[in-house]
Backbone:
């Protein structure tokens, strides 16, 4: 058997930092463009969100990064509903942490 962390960085028993492509979405709720942002004349924004993904593919911790505050509430609402295919190492699901870009666009 391969060691459980072969091919990825292991940090103790905590979540392993991975590229977001290693925790593919199963369910991705797209955040709505906030009305207040529209009223301010904003038409698009790209934010980042750090998500700790459990071995079951659920977000356990969510932190909004590099994003105007006006988008935080909607981004958190959407991120809480996301479901992932968890990262894997040695054929087993592992807890992981990743940073995901999220694009807001006014339609």
Residues:
């Amino acid at each position: 058997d391969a060691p459980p962390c072969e091919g990825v960085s292991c940090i103790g028993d905590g979540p392993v930092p991975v590229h977001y492509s290693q925790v593919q979405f199963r369910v991705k709720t797209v955040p709505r463009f906030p009305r207040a942002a529209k009223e301010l004349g904003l038409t698009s924004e790209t934010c980042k969100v750090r998500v700790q993904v459990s071995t079951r593919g659920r977000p356990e911790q969510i932190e909004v990064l590099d994003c105007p505050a006006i988008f935080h509430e909607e981004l958190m609402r959407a991120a809480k509903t996301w479901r992932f295919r968890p990262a894997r190492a040695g054929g087993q699901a592992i807890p992981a942490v990743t940073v995901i870009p999220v694009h807001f666009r006014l339609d």
Notes: The helical segments are 35-39, 72-79. The mean pLDDT is 89. The longest strand covers residues 44-53. The radius of gyration is 16 Å.
